[in-house]
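Q: How would the C-alpha cells look for this protein?
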Amino acid sequence: MMEKKTLIDQVTQLEHMIENSHHIVLFSGAGVSTESGLKDFRSKDGMYSQSSKYPTEYMLSSDMFWKHTEEFYEYYKKNFNCLDVQPNITHQYFKKLEDKNKLRAIVTQNIDGLHTKAGNKKVYEIHGTIMTNHCTQCYKNYDASYVFQSKGIPTCTCGGMIKTDVVLYGESLPEDAFEASIQAIQDADLLIVAGTSLTVEPASSLIRLFQGNYLVILNQTETSYDDQADLVIHDSLKNIFKNLHK
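A: Here is the predicted structure in C-alpha cell form.
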C-alpha cells in the first residue's frame, strides 16, 4: 500500500514543478478569494445557501437584470461590494511568480478584481468583473465605486441605465478574454488550478485544452479532473502557500 504523502511532501513536489517550469498559468476560482473573507458559491455557507426571493442563478441572471432591475441591484450591491477587500497570500504568491517571469497569465472565474489589485498584469476575467460597468445607452464606462455608492438603479449622465460587466446567467462569456485564455492554457507548461470545483461550463472545459508537462489541482474538495492531474492537494490554499518557498 502506497504511503500517503504529507502536505509538506506535496508542497515540495509543487515547488519542484514550479522550478522546472517557465510558462506557468493559473486557473483560479472562488476558493482563492475566500481567504480574503469573500463567500464562494457552492460551499455550505456560500452564496447558493442564502435565502432570497428567487434562486441565486435567477438573481444573477440577465433576465432578472432587465425585468427586475431595482431588485437586481439591491441584491448585487448587498452581496458583491468587495472594494475594501484585500488580496491574500495566494494572490500575493502569484504576483511574485509573475515578477519572476514564470507566471505568464491568470485565467480566473472570479469577478472581484483581487488578482489585479495584487498587481498581476495579465489577468483574463472570463466571468467579467465588478470593477467595470457601462451605460446601456451611450456605453460610457463607470467604475465600481460609482455603482455601489449609487442609490437605487445607477444611471449615466445621459440618463441611461448602467449595467455591470459581470457575466450574468444567460449571457455569453467575453470573447476576447475567453480566446486569450484558450491560447494561454495551450501554451502553458504548468497549469495550476486553484480554488475551483471545475463544475461550471464552459469555463471548466478549458482544462481539457492543456497539453503541457504538469497539471496541478489545489482545492479543498475533489474535482472531476483529479484523476487526470499530476499533483492534487486537498487542503486550504492558505496552508499550501504559506509552506511554499517565496
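The beta strands are 24-28, 103-108, 123-125, 132-135, 141-143, 162-164, 190-194, 214-218, 231-233.

The mean pLDDT is 93.

Upvote if useful.
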